[in-house]
Amino acid sequence: MTIALADPSLLREQCYVDGQWIGTASIDVTDPATDERLAGIPAIDEAGTRAAIEAAEAALPEWKAKTAGERSRILRRWFELLIAHQDDLAMILTREQGKALAEAKGEIAYAASFIEWFGEEAKRIYGEIIPSHRADSRIVVIKQPVGVVAAITPWNFPAAMITRKAAPALAAGCTMVLKPATQTPLTALALAVLAERAGVPRGVFNVVTGSSRVIGAELTGNPLVRKLSFTGSTEVGKTLMAQCAPTMKKLSMELGGNAPFIVFADADLDAAVEGAIASKYRNSGQTCVCVNRILVQRDVAPAFAEKLKAAVAKLKVGPGTEAGVTQGPLIDEKAVEKVEEHVADALAKGGTLVSGGHRHALGHSFFEPTIISGCTPEMKLADEETFGPLAALFLFDTEEEAVALANATEVGLSGYFYTRDLSRAWRVGEALEVGMVGINTGLISTEVAPFGGIKESGMGREGSRHGIEDYVEIKYLCMAGI
Ligand SMILES: NC(=O)C1=CN([C@@H]2O[C@H](COP(=O)(O)OP(=O)(O)OC[C@H]3O[C@@H](n4cnc5c(N)ncnc54)[C@H](OP(=O)(O)O)[C@@H]3O)[C@@H](O)[C@H]2O)C=CC1
Ligand SMILES: O=C(O)CCCC(=O)O
Question: So where's the catalytic machinery, residue-wise (predicted)?
Fold first, then answer.
């Protein structure tokens, strides 16, 4: 294997099921910056997936019977191990996913923060006593773990999207079978190594790799699985939701976005540019909360475009492991083709290229950070998530027009706007049809806040005290004859 690590035992080429490392590598994992083969992973079949679910079911009684404090202490050790191995984990992440190493280190810290937060929150899954409707009875509400949880996670955040699901699940007393993205399974397997070292008992956290259709069919069809938590495309989310319907599983769906970023004429333009850069070009634009449409009020549009162009010129494209690089490669050829398609379509429909617009000279899946001005709702980039380093500038005249443009999409994950007007901040914040709003900031992600969307961006919330609610069932006990 080709990733140099201080602790080489973090690199695994087997699945982790019932506390055992199983399977033989048959699928290649490659570096998107070089196309070099990094490692191999097994293709677990239906029977193997079923075995993982059964292991999770068998581990459930003992895990949920532990006190919240006991589960919390194990999660604390897992958190500390992530921090202790931050550099190695970041290196694995960058090699298989592509993002700049500094960003990967940030993701490991972010991933660890969910384990710390939910380990603490385990102790605060409070019930309720409701004043009764009868003198001789008492009404008590308790919260219990939902049971075996299946998680399917994407390649864009190979660590954080896992811990954001696994930490609340384990904290609540659930067990889990995880299928990470096939392009980025090595980080997931390294997290399993550390879970084992932290003392997570066998069967509580299982990782299976292989065909998403095969594994997904078993995870969604098996009645032992009581909940599915998915992060990925809206299209796949809808398929999985339908597959879960016959067994009526609880669902958390964190799906695609089409984030508007509104710059009002009264905004601090330098701050707005900084926010746009952070949000648009984070992970080379491959984040569901990345800005997809930048709406700029007409009076300040030329100045904003000039400042954005100057800021984009400072971004450095290259392999994520190289010092000073801010923009790694896109995940694969398909991702580059989508950006190319959006650029060509926008230019054909009257857009103006301000920066970039092409594959980078480095080849592979590197793409130049790009800006197109004069964008309109007829363009593909207005409707679809580009999921790449393309900043699309639209014009508007009034606040009403900006809000209408921002809401003209069937998805609603995040939205951002810049203004100095306090009344407008409330008005627009309340009017945007999204689950998360950044006001005078382009970065909204934190373990302490509820992350999630409305409309076709999905359901459920991850992070914050709300994040653990998705992993418990409410039961009401009516105690009569008192
Ligand atoms: N909300 C978000 O954070 C994300 C949004 N996206 C959006 O989706 C687009 C496509 O990206 P893509 O990677 O294809 O996203 P997908 O939704 O296809 O993949 C996300 C996860 O779902 C799995 N998966 C795919 N198909 C199935 C299935 N039929 N049954 C069960 N699991 C399945 C994948 O497995 P496998 O890797 O094995 O295919 C992966 O683990 C992006 O361009 C972007 O617009 C993508 C990633 C994250
Ligand atoms: O779904 C995603 O694209 C990951 C969101 C990362 C974040 O928490 O900001």
Answer: 254
Evaluate whether 8-255+457-478 and 259-439 have a shared fold: no
State the burial class of residue 133 (Cβ atoms within 10 Å of its Cβ: 0-12, 13-18, 19+): exposed
CA of 386 to the centre of ligand 1 (A): 14
* Residue extents of the structural domains in the chain: 8-255+457-478, 259-439
Q: Per the structure block, which two tokens stand in for 361?
A: 């000279």
Amino acid at 459: M
- Please say whether the dihedral angle defined by the alpha carbons of residues 361, 366, 368 and 373, taken in this order, is positive or negative: positive
ipTM of the complex: 0.96
Ligand 2 centroid distance, CA of 368 (Å): 22
Q: Is the pLDDT of residue 54 over 70?
A: yes
Secondary structure (3-state) at 465: helix
Asked if 121 is an active-site residue, the reply is: no
- Residue 470, pLDDT > 80, answer yes
Q: Of the ligands numbered here, which is closest to the C-alpha atom of 387?
A: 1
CA separation for the pair 115, 441 (Å, rounded): 25
In the structure encoding, which two tokens stand for residue 381, read together? 């980039």
CATH architecture under which domain 8-255+457-478 falls: 3-Layer(aba) Sandwich (3.40)
In this structure, the residue with its CA closest to atom 1 of ligand 2 is 288
Tens-place pLDDT, residues 332-347: 999 999 999 999 999 9
So what's the pLDDT on residue 1? 52
State the catalytic residue, choosing from 254, 368, 399, 447: 254
If you measure from the C-alpha of residue 482 to the centroid of ligand 2, how many angstroms do you get, rounded to a whole number? Answer: 50
Q: pTM of the predicted model, to two decimals?
A: 0.98
Measured from the alpha carbon of residue 445, the closest ligand is: 2
CATH of the structural domain 259-439, one choice from 3.30.230.70, 2.60.120.260, 3.40.630.30, 3.40.309.10: 3.40.309.10
